[in-house]
Amino acid sequence: MTVHSSTDSSAVVIRPARPADQASSDGLPPLRPDGDGPRWRRTVVAERAGEVVGLASMQLDPVTENYLCEVVVAPAHRRAGIGTSLYGAACQLLERPYRVQARAMARQPLRRLFAEALGCELVRHHPEPWADPTTTPWRQWIDAHPVPDGHTALTLAEADPAGVRRAWLQYDEWSHAPVGPVRPHHLVDAWERYRSGLDADTSTVVVEEAAPEEVLAFCLVSAQQWEGRTLAVSETAAPDQEDGVAFLEAAVARTLLRLGARGVRRVELEGHSDDPHFPVLVAGLPEHDADPMDLLALRRPAAG
Ligand SMILES: CC(C)(COP(=O)(O)OP(=O)(O)OC[C@H]1O[C@@H](n2cnc3c(N)ncnc32)[C@H](O)[C@@H]1OP(=O)(O)O)[C@@H](O)C(=O)NCCC(=O)NCCS
Q1: Phi then psi for 287, rounded to 5 degrees?
Q2: Where is the composition biased (Polar residues) (predicted)?
Q3: How many CB atoms sit inside 10 A of residue 13's CB?
Q4: Whose CA is nearest to atom 35 of ligand 1?
Q5: Facing residues of 130 across strands?
Q6: Domains along the sequence of the chain with CATH
Q7: Which of 274, 270, 293, 272 is nearest to 131 (CA)?
Q8: How does DSSP classify residue 301?
Q9: Nearest-CA neighbor of 232 among 111, 132, 145, 161?
Q10: Which among 102, 248, 252, 256 is least surrounded, fewest beta carbons within 10 Å?
Q11: How far is the CA of 248 from the centre of ligand 1 (A)?
């Protein structure tokens, strides 16, 4: 597809990934297979002297009309334009005019530098605070946020599955709206995949005692996702939930209590800066570390 000449005269070829390809250079993630339909994915690789030294993958967002982009170039081959060429080649494979998005985490600064070089704009900010529920300040915060009177906290294992599913689907639809047009028919599929990875004993839902099948707020835990981080997604089911911050805090507090009892020391609280209750929750947390993440829209090169 694209060929770079280089000082050591070994050319770099950019081409679609093949099933037999292996990321043979250090620092590259395993290649994931292409997909079609709602799980559409394509990958291009950079090959030098028979070795895969970089890759770019585009994946259809499971819920919104966006593509999610990942570009990785092996450290020894960086700053030679390979990442930019991979991105351009991957864009040529896109079948729809959807926006291309990438994640830029504060602790991976190259992501932002690269995105800025391509041209990008902020879609939304994720504060991503880290909780250590084994420490005194966090135990005090947990104790200070009980479940409001007339309500109760259930684990996911105890809760009505249909009620949790309904709450999640409601949340997922309104929370994605600022990111781009939602593809509602894919929400259910996305929930089934997400649900299968949740920890039922530390995830919490808050319900009214008189109506336990109506979930008001939740804190859903995916244990040990990456770099030792346990991820917890927390919000109210309805964006305009009355006393929503108190319900949200209670859900997070019950989950942290259970994770603390297990000795889990890094819980990343996931939520968005434009959610109605999450930023208020973050503002009241004890002093904490964080890995803020920006969702960026990348400029698509002109076709041709
Ligand atoms: C980000 C990454 C893919 C860039 O690959 P690359 O082949 O070095 O990219 P390019 O050579 O095309 O760089 C394009 C521009 O990005 C910016 N950039 C890339 N790496 C940079 C660095 N280390 N410092 C400052 N700017 C940098 C520069 O503006 C660069 O242009 P320049 O070299 O003319 O100054 C690579 O560093 C990498 O794999 N990092 C880890 C994974 C990652 O962060 N991926 C991005 C997620 S989408």
Answers
A1: -55, 135
A2: 1-10
A3: 12
A4: 79
A5: 268
A6: 2-126 (3.40.630.30), 130-288 (3.40.630.30)
A7: 270
A8: P
A9: 132
A10: 102
A11: 39
Q: What is the pLDDT confidence band of residue 227, given thresholds at 50, 70 and 90?
A: confident
- 45 Cα to the center of ligand 1, angstroms: 16
Distance between Cα 78 and ligand 1 center (Å): 7
The set of protein residues with a Cβ atom below 6 angstroms from ligand 1 is: 69-73, 78-84, 102, 108, 110-111, 113-114, 117
- 74-94 pLDDT, tens digit per residue, is 999 999 999 999 999 999 999
Whether 226 shows a pLDDT value over 80: the answer reads no
Residues in the chain: 304
Supply 303's token pair: 């076709």
Q: How far is the CA of 116 from the centre of ligand 1 (A)?
A: 10
**94 CA to middle of ligand 1, Å?**
22
Q: For residues 241 and 47, what is the distance between their CA atoms, to the nearest angstrom?
A: 53
